[in-house]
Specification:
Blueprint: E1 4-6, E2 15-18, H1 24-36, E3 40-44, H2 50-61, E4 65-70, E5 75-79, E6 87-92, H3 97-109, E7 112-117, H4 120-123, H5 128-136, E8 140-144, E9 147-154, E10 158-164, H6 171-179, E11 184-191, H7 198-210, E12 215-218, E13 221-224, E14 234-236, H8 241-254, E15 257-260, H9 274-280, E16 287-290, H10 298-307, E17 311-315, H11 327-337, E18 341-345, E19 348-352, E20 361-362, H12 368-379, E21 385-387, H13 399-408, E22 412-417, H14 423-434, E23 437-440, H15 441-449, H16 452-459, H17 461-475, E24 480-483, H18 492-501, E25 502-507, H19 511-520, H20 536-550, E26 553-555, H21 561-575
Helix pairs in contact: 1-2, 1-3, 1-7, 2-3, 3-6, 6-7, 8-10, 8-12, 14-21, 15-17, 16-17
């Protein structure tokens, strides 16, 4: 019986900062090098998703000393060195292509007979080019119709030169590079044709360098000298750019804000280019996007493409057919369930902007990346559910917990308008309905500085605006609703902060109503020498274009507070609705 998870929709734009899981790509490369190298290596922040756990268990089955010291923190200790005791074992790799491909090469070095297998999805994934490379070095390997289960008779460590077709997966090349330093005479790898996802090879070489190993490159030829890896002692795994994709796309679609606190801009991970790809999809019209360097993000970006005006053609991603599932075929199938216009091509997808969705039960075919992308669609429209959602544990065990956290913190809401337009009243009532904290910046100012009237009379409006700007910068935080002075947005720096970090709501009240309220309210200092009533039209004419440019939601004149609140809540939901 397959479990089905309903996908909860967003109610308003979010503002969330998260620590993303450690990159499984980095962690598994580091684990192999730590196991084969000399010395003790401690890995930190190596999130124990399924793929990393399969790698740990596989290395232990091969006789390596690997100890998970703290599963929650992802702390793993590895004692380097190959065991001399000949043994045999069956090593189950789930649906982890990286694990089985890397462990085939490790198994070739370890005396014994090792059978590697996995689930039905993994057994369909290609591995023959890697097996053929090892056979050419004299390693005995028995496969099953060119795939898993694969039995490796290990212990031969003679190096040499191999030819390799890495067009279907860069993992074949990475697998050989990671172990080449152990082979007698080292290893030379001559590539046949193009390499899929070449940035992952760069990540492999970068991780090798941390262990003191250099992989030389001359055109299609890679060389690894027989210089054993040396433990650097401590390896901290960077946050996973691939895991950030769903949240970054969701933020883009809802005008929300997302920050992965542990992402590095200078990371060697291929998906660090994600912000550039998202920016390329802004605006209308037909586009062609080459996904050769970042194929894992195609599914997330296809969701973004489905919301834009125009036709988006994604190319260069033929190797997605050999991932956890045929990602091109299954993405097209699942998107069509939702009513999205999508065409499958040999090396990519063509997505046409779709205005209306149809609720559906998604089946990601055990693919973690696709499950996360489909969850983005479900977050924007009611009625969607996801089968076998646990597959996200392959790389991101906390994905759905983090998706829930995103719903809990709305982006700061900032209410602006002319003096006496009702900003404070609307902010208070809205905060009560949304169970949010409310901040009136005038009240914060007076709690610190005394009467606003007296302060302006003594120090002038410029001094007040400077103090006000500091208060706004300090108080604008997720989950809060701010009522701020209308004149604050005349300061470009303050306006920039408010627009970037908040959802601006403009109360566009009639001047006649504002005039009557000013007459009844306690006196406030005038902005000019003309007096508060006499200057009203001049101030309104100057500020109105600023309010319009900054605001995402306009509250029209003549509404009572209850009507204003209902309108704002409806508009906030609309920002997050397909």
């Amino acid at each position: 019986m397959k479990s089905v998870r309903p996908i909860e929709t967003l109610s308003m734009p979010f503002d969330c900062e998260l620590d993303l899981p450690g990159s499984k790509s980095e962690a598994n490369r580091a684990l192999v090098l730590a196991a084969l190298g000399q010395g003790v290596t401690r890995l930190e922040r190596a999130t124990l998703g399924d793929d990393v756990l399969y790698m740990v268990e596989g290395l232990m089955a091969l006789g390596f000393e690997v100890d998970v010291l703290d599963a929650a923190k992802g702390t793993i200790e590895v004692m380097g060195g190959i065991a001399d005791t000949e043994d045999e074992a069956e090593i189950y790799c789930g649906n982890a292509g990286t694990v089985v491909r890397f462990l085939v090469s490790v198994a070739a070095l370890v005396p014994g007979e090792w059978t590697l297998t996995g689930d039905p999805y993994l057994r369909r994934r290609p591995i023959s080019p890697l097996l053929d490379a090892w056979r050419s070095l004299g390693v005995e390997i028995r496969d099953t119709d060119g795939g898993l289960p694969v039995t490796v008779v290990g212990g031969r460590r003679q190096g040499g030169r191999v030819s390799l077709d890495a067009s279907r997966s860069s993992q074949f090349l990475s697998s050989l590079l990671l172990v080449g330093h152990v082979l007698e005479g080292g290893l030379e790898i001559e590539l046949e044709g193009e390499t899929a996802s070449a940035d992952y090879v760069a990540l492999t070489r970068d991780t090798m360098a941390r262990f003191g190993i250099r992989a030389g490159v001359e055109g299609p030829l890679y060389r690894v000298a027989p210089i054993r890896a040396q433990s650097p002692g401590l390896v901290r795994i960077d946050g996973d750019w691939s895991a950030a994709g769903a949240f970054m796309v969701l933020a883009e679609l809802t005008s929300g804000r997302f920050l992965g606190r542990n992402l590095k801009d200078n990371s060697r991970q291929a998906d660090r280019r994600l912000p550039e790809l998202i920016a390329a999809l802004r605006g209308n019209g037909d586009l062609e996007i080459d996904m050769a360097a970042t194929p894992d993000q195609l599914m997330n970006l296809a969701v973004l493409a489905a919301r834009r005006e125009g036709r988006t053609r994604f190319i260069g991603a033929a190797n997605l057919r050999y991932k956890e599932c045929d990602r091109l075929a299954i993405t097209a199938r699942e998107f069509r369930k939702a009513g999205i216009e999508i065409e499958e091509e040999e090396d990519g997808l063509v997505v046409t902007g779709t205005r209306k969705l149809e609720p559906a039960e998604f089946d990601p075919e055990q693919d973690h990346r696709l499950a996360m992308a489909l969850s983005v669609i479900g977050s924007l429209h009611p009625g969607f559910s996801l089968r076998n959602s646990r597959c996200v544990a392959k790389s991101y065990p906390d994905f759905f917990a983090h998706l829930k956290r995103i719903r809990e913190k709305h982006q700061a809401i900032v209410v602006v308008g002319m003096r006496a337009s009702g900003k404070s009243r609307l902010a208070r009532e809205l905060a009560e309905r949304l169970e949010s904290a409310v901040v009136d910046t005038d009240e914060v100012f007076e709690s610190k500085n005394g009467s606003l009237f007296d302060y302006v009379a003594k120090s002038g409006w410029p001094a007040f605006r400077r103090a006000e700007a500091m208060i706004i910068a300090e108080e604008i935080k997720p989950g809060r609703i701010l009522a701020i002075g209308g004149g604050s947005l005349e300061n470009p720096a303050t306006r920039d902060i408010v627009v970037k970090r908040g959802i601006v709501i403009h109360i566009d009240e009639d001047l006649a109503i504002i005039r009557e309220r000013i007459k009844r309210d306690p006196p406030r200092p005038a902005l000019t020498s003309r007096g508060t009533l006499e200057e009203l039209e001049e101030i309104h004419e100057r500020r109105l274009p600023i309010f319009k440019s900054a605001a995402r939601i306009r509250v029209p004149p003549g509404l009572v507070t209850e009507e204003q609140v209902a309108l704002v809540i409806e508009e906030l939901r609309r920002l997050c609705t397909w």
